[in-house]
């Protein structure tokens, strides 16, 4: 049987020292709370009688209201338990309040649709993958915000770790999306702050090594003999270009058009940060641009510099563009691993490592960290600071020469 009691919530005190009154419903050791909309100072509260003291303003009317609300809640709890053999505290709360709890799944699907509408395809796909996992775990049943408590969160984290064997950072990424959903629901007043289990739950994250190429490795990568004009050679040239020119992301490099190049600079509007950045190209990058210019004698200003995306395809649809970039990125990363192997580089190389390569090279050559941060399009200098640690570790390693006989 469910128990219905009155509770003065001492953990929610306003500036006047007043505390709110709640009806607490406990069923199967799970508690749900219903606010009475009444705030009482502890000095005005009789805990033994569960009523306000006579000195409280309109005490008679307030106590009558309290008594009625408790009686109604108890009667509703008995009635719904009589009609249903198995009922949760959430269902009893819904019956008392006359409204249903909000679906966490529906709220997450609405967020996913909003991402699609805004063309944020990368985030959309991450949310979709996370939602599919959750629905599989729930066996396609619905999940209410009221049911997504700390106990459920810990149990689901164990499921991701022990059953799906997800890596710690994958679990972190999944739960981070859930945390955002709860934070949004609190801001939109769908749920109260105390219903957010992430206020009592810390997300764990494991630091990962940022792979990058040394000057020697980059030279071996660049000078490896590949078939001229092959797709693999294009992928290699793009990597070298990025490693020389601000660590341009592959999504931006794939979309680089001749109209973005004036002979000395490229101007890009970054897809991820939506910022415009102008980068002065070093000699090596200009040589690559001239090489591709000569291979495209009839090029138009609107044509792509690196001939991977098709000039005659309309990429104005965010979904079409995202799918094309994703497909090419996978192909590029596959070829980069093969190139690294041929160049005897025993590192896990992906196109993103070109950003790490450029950043470490720039700092080693004396570029100020603020300039490195700006050219990489980082929103915070703190993000760039990780590269100073890498450079410092390289310097520490270099100093070991003095310990050799």
Task: Throw out a few tags for this protein.
7 strands, single chain, DNA polymerase, domain 1, elongated, 405 residues, hpI Integrase, Chain A, two-stranded antiparallel sheet, 3-stranded antiparallel sheet, mainly alpha
Describe the protein's architecture and organization.
The protein has helices at residues 59-83, 89-97, 104-117, 121-138, 150-163, 168-187, 215-223, 231-244, 250-254, 283-294, 318-342, 353-364, 369-376, 381-399; strands spanning 3-8, 19-27, 30-40, 45-46, 51-52, 265-269, 276-280. It is elongated and about 90 Å long. The chain is mainly α and 405 residues long. It contains 14 helices and 7 strands.
CATH class of the largest domain: Mainly Alpha
State the helical fraction. Answer: 40-55%
The CATH homologous superfamily of the largest domain corresponds to Intergrase catalytic core
- Percentage beta strand: 5-15%
CATH topology of the largest domain: hpI Integrase, Chain A
Residue stretches low in confidence (pLDDT < 50, at least 5 long) are none
What order do the SSEs take from the amino end to the carboxyl end, as H and E? EEEEEHHHHHHHHHEEHHHHH
Count the E strands.
7
